[in-house]
Design a protein that fits this description.
Blueprint: E1 50-51, E2 59-60, E3 68-72, H1 73-78, H2 84-87, E4 94-96, E5 118-120, E6 129-132, E7 135-136, E8 141-143, E9 146-148, E10 159-166, H3 170-173, E11 180-186, E12 199-208, E13 213-224, E14 227-239, E15 260-275, E16 278-294, E17 300-302, E18 311-334, E19 344-366, E20 375-398, E21 401-423, E22 439-454, E23 459-474, E24 488-504, E25 507-514, H4 522-525, E26 530-531, E27 534-535
Parallel strand pairs: 6-11
Antiparallel strand pairs: 1-2, 3-10, 4-5, 6-7, 8-9, 10-11, 12-13, 13-14, 14-15, 15-16, 16-18, 17-18, 18-19, 19-20, 20-21, 21-22, 22-23, 23-24, 24-25, 26-27
Length: 543
Amino acid sequence: MTSGNTCSAIALIIASGFMLTPFGVVNAKDYPTENATPPDAYSDVKGGVITVTATRTPSDVDDVPITITVIDDQQIADELASDVRDLVRFEPGITVRRQPARFGATLGSTGRGGNEDFNIRGIGGNRVLIQVDGIRSPEGFSFGAQDVGRGNATDIGLIKSVEILRGPASALYGSDGLSGAVSFITADPADFIQDGNAVGGFVRAQFSSADQEFAESAAIAGQLGDVSALIAYSRRDFEELDNKGTNDAEGAARTAPNPQDGSSDALLGKLVWSSGDHRLRLTGEYLDRGLSSQILSGRGPVFLFGPQPSWIVDNLTAKDSMKRARASLDWTYDASGDGGVIDYAHLAAFWQDSEDRQFALEERSPTSATPRPDRERLNIFETRVYGAVAEIRSGFSTGSIGHRLTIGGDISWTRQEGLRDGTAPPFGETFPTRAFPVTDFTQGGVFASDEISIGEGRLLIYPALRFDFYDLNPTDDPLLPTFAGAAQDGSRLSPKLGVVYKITEALRVYGNYAQGFRAPTPTQVNNFSKIWPLAIPPSQTLN
């Protein structure tokens, strides 16, 4: 069992114009969140916590027909959360899996993915939508000894709030929202600058005993006229995850954690122009994470056939790295309450590139006349994506019935590829090779949702419908000369209907029906493995 004990020390520097305040607390009078606008005349928000993820319109969490959690930066600090795993440790039905490292060079991947994924009500992996500022996080990937986790791609030191939706979210967000959605929202310059000041920021330090992590975060923001800017940095140094094991011996009987040494650097920058109802924002983010491991539990004799060892592993080491960079440019028009036809409009274009490299070296000794050369494995998984998002909202009435109508869509173009390389490949394989061919993947969708208010807000109805499409096209890959990948495309309609009835201001009943779907990944359609005498054809040819 892993240790959950965490302690924290907070260091604060205060100077003229500097502050350390909750920059993610959202209430009825404060709407700094991404894509958020003040409620119009038909909402019934009375100072509660606001969510945008649940319905794509800012609504009180008590008035939405689904279970959602909103975590601001003050709660993150109060609960001493150092990563996404700590972030949800008190949330029912939500977990982030992280296991002590006990993987091999060629087989087994236990613990190699770090914070592997969010699991919502028993469903996890790529079936949970994860987004940062409305941009999807890279997918996870697992093949053989490679395991690319999704929980390592976000540094919560740069996050001002998190919204976690339980239940299918495909009617609003499309593919991946089978069991729910996790929306991270980063800080803006205005979140640090108090009225009357031109500069603001914070400095914070933290320690976690679970993996001996030291974390330092700092941010500074400034404003000149209509232009403001922010730069934030977070540094983390950590070791292996403690599991309270007592057997410190080398070999498979070891229960103590294997030694690890890791670090990460995260950088966030924003440049914002804001004038009247219009805002133009340029965002850049970069994350670089590295981890070195000594797998002492993997040393010793290896038994393949019979009682005699086939070889002896003298040493097993690994060095992994993960890099993610993104840039986005967005324009927002917010005229809520002005009486116009359009209350809110948002348009964004983005680019994102992520690369995960996992290297392992296994030093071996023979136990017979059969030579056992040392083995190296280098596994790379890379995803490059660019796309666009558009959304408009309008509040109006039809008689005594109020509406908040939202219409939007998004499209993205992705290239995904992986590489398997090294020395002493498995029998029947030749390095370098791939687990799937280089694949171009297009996905997009359009949606419409409404918030219908009846009886002065006592009855709220939330209908939504989204149409999604995808088109997956593998390339003729020279590293897979004998493998002909199969293309695949499709579409999907995802409906949703939620109802909330307010019996009193303190008592509500609600019901919700929603469907979720997931478009296939390149490796699900075209997974290549050729270990003599077996081979795996494209999934479209399987019965």
